[in-house]
Every structure is written in C-alpha cells, then in structure tokens.
Design a protein that fits this description.
Number of helices: 11
Distance between the termini: 111 Å
Largest sheet: 2 strands, antiparallel
Shape: flat
Strand content: under 5%
Structural class: mainly alpha
Helix content: 40-55%
C-alpha cells in the first residue's frame, strides 16, 4: 500500500469508529470490525453478536435496511471496502463464467469471452442501479442456461487444483531426495578418495614401480568412479522427472477441427456407372464420322463425339449380361420353352414326325396420326 493511501486512512477517524455503537478503536485496541457482502457496511463484532445472534435482522446502518445474517459477516482482507467488494464480485462472477481456455478454438474467441466477463464485473461494481440490475439478471440467466457446463468446469477446476497440489508435493519430495542424494554422493566420494589415497600409499610403500604411473592410475580410477556415480544420479533424476510429468496437463486452446468439405451432389447416389465390359476410348476410326471430325462446325450446337461413342458402346454391350432363364429361375417359375419348339416337343411325345417350322408372319401396326 502506498504512503498516500496510508495517510488517507490515517486522516479518516471514522475508519476506527463503529457506526452502530460508536465504539472507538483508540479506546479499545482489541476492537474488531466485520463486514457483510450484502451491503459491505462495517460494524464491530460486539454489535454483530448483539443484533444477529437471534436470527436475521435488518442492517442497523441508516438508509440501508438490507436483511443480514450472522454467518455472512467476516473480517475485511483489504482496508478499502471498494476493493473488498470488487474482489467478492469477481469471485461470484468467476464461479459462473468459468469456461476454460481449451474450450475455444482461437485466441480471439477466448479474449472476447474474457472481455465480456470483465464488462459484466464492471457493470456490477461501477454501474448505477439500473445497470447493476441488468448485469445481475444477465448473470442469473447465464447460470440457469449453463448449469451443467458450470458444474463440470467447477469439478475440472477442483481436479486440476488437486493435481497441482500433488505435483508440488512431488516436486518438494524430489528436491529433498536430490539434496539427500547429493549429500550421500559427497560422502561416498570422500570415502573413495580416502580409500584410494591409502591404496596409493600402500602401493608406493610395497612396490618398486614408477610413483608417477601409480598416481596417474589411481587418479583414473577415481575419475571413473565419479563419472559412473554421476551418470547413475542423472538417470534417477530423469526417471523421477518423467514420472512427475506423466500426470501434467497443459491447458491451451481447443484443437481446431477442419470443417467437413461438402461433396458435390451425386444424382446416382454413389452408384459407379463406369463400364466394366469395355474401355471407352477418346476416338474411334469411322468413315461415317470423318467429316464430323474434320469440320468443327458440328460442335457449335453442343454436339459431342464422345457422347456418341459412349452411347454406341453402351447399346452394343447392353444385352450381354442379361439371361432370361436365370432371372425366371430366381423367381421360382418354370422357364418358358424357346420360341418355335413347342410343336416339335408335342410331336415327339405323340410319336409323330415333327413338322417343319412354320414361317412366322409379321404384321406391322401403326397408329394413324391424322
């Protein structure tokens, strides 16, 4: 708190006087002031016990009249009650507008959401009576419309808090283990150094070799043991770090999902119309189409040789896959005899010689259009 703020608090003697019983902190140093979030009017703890112990009652501060309960009173954390009220409003709004950053796909959407929440807090804290009423109504409507999401985000927040506590506890334990390991390593290193020094002195006293070579060899042994001990400590540290990071969750923006590309409309419903009995070529040699190929004026009205080729090949191969006998057998009906064989079959059954097949007579019928 700045000096100006302290001086302003010190210059205002009403900050140390209860507005109800007029008790003065100067005369009673143990006097404790309490506030209620309903109206943020300050009064001493003695007045709170005297007025609100028997049940809810109206605020005794003139021109207030709000109904207060004893359980709502608490000690102010900030000396400025405006700051205390703003902190409580932010807690109340934050408990409702508790969406998470990973629910948004872009940073702009996340910032717009934060701006909306900040505007709502400002309207409740600094707005007039009408603005505050509208903001409170908006807060209430949002809470009723998104109660499920609010509860889920609250539960996720509690789980993240527990996870963070466990992670901090694990980090403190890992730091303690590292300190113990460092002390143990230092003690082992000192013990090895003393042991090697004694071995070197014994070898120098009993052997006739070069003293410098014996000292160099002992130094190499010491460095080798120190390196092995250090590598073992690094391996254990990496193992502990990976174990702690396995439960770590990093919050961020929601993974952006690409919109599904709309496919063009298919009037055949996905049926493949590609011919299977032949391969349609781009051009065929035909004396009937020679002039059409050379003279491009045939194409002016939308005529297409490829369409002509496709239709001709379709008509040529259209009846190859049709077998009437198989289709009739699938229906459960006897297949009709071939045309022209019925008289012969009857003649054979009666013992007569089959007569020659009569010539079919064709009769053309046409409608008279006149």
């Amino acid at each position: 708190m700045s000096r100006n703020a302290i001086s302003r608090l010190g210059d205002n003697p009403s900050d140390d006087i209860c507005p109800v019983c007029k008790s003065n902190r100067y005369l009673n140093p143990s006097l404790q002031f309490l506030i209620n979030p309903e109206c943020y009017h300050k009064m001493c703890s003695t007045c709170v016990d005297r007025i609100f112990t028997s049940g809810p009652a109206s605020c005794p501060v003139p021109r207030c009249g709000k109904t207060l309960r004893k359980r709502g009173f608490h000690k102010a954390f900030f000396a400025d009650l405006k700051i205390e009220r703003e902190v409580d409003v932010r807690k109340r709004v934050g408990a409702v507008f508790n969406r998470r950053q990973d629910e948004f796909e872009t940073l702009l959407d996340w910032n717009n959401y934060l701006e909306e929440v900040e505007g709502l807090v400002f309207d409740i804290v600094e707005g007039d009576a009408k603005t505050r009423a509208q903001a409170e109504e908006k807060l209430k409507a949002y809470k009723e419309a998104n109660s499920g999401e609010i509860e889920m985000n609250t539960r996720l927040g509690l789980e993240e808090g527990e996870l963070e506590k466990r992670r901090e506890k694990a980090e403190r334990e890992a730091a303690r283990q590292r300190r113990l390991a460092a002390l143990k390593e230092e003690e082992e290193e000192k013990a090895d150094l003393l042991k090697n020094r004694k071995e070197v002195l014994d070898r120098l006293a009993t052997e006739d070799g070069d003293a410098n070579a014996i000292a160099m060899q002992a130094q190499k042994v010491i460095l080798k043991k120190s390196s092995a001990r250090r590598n073992l400590a690094d391996t254990q540290m990496e193992t502990n770090k990976s174990a702690m990071d396995s439960g770590l969750t990093i919050r961020g923006l929601k993974k952006k999902e690409a919109p599904v590309v709309e496919k063009p409309y298919d009037p055949f419903g996905g049926v493949d119309l590609t011919p299977s009995r032949y391969v349609l070529q781009e051009s065929y040699d035909s004396e009937w189409l020679g002039n059409a190929k050379r003279d491009m004026r045939h194409m002016a009205g939308g005529y297409s040789l490829q369409e002509y080729y496709a239709r001709t090949m379709f008509e040529a191969f259209s009846g190859l896959g049709v077998f009437i006998e198989d289709e009739v057998a699938d229906r459960g009906q006897p297949a009709p005899p071939a045309v022209g064989t019925t008289p012969a079959v009857g003649a054979i059954a009666s013992g007569e010689e089959p007569q020659s097949k009569p010539k079919p007579q064709y009769k053309m019928e046409s409608d008279d259009v006149f």
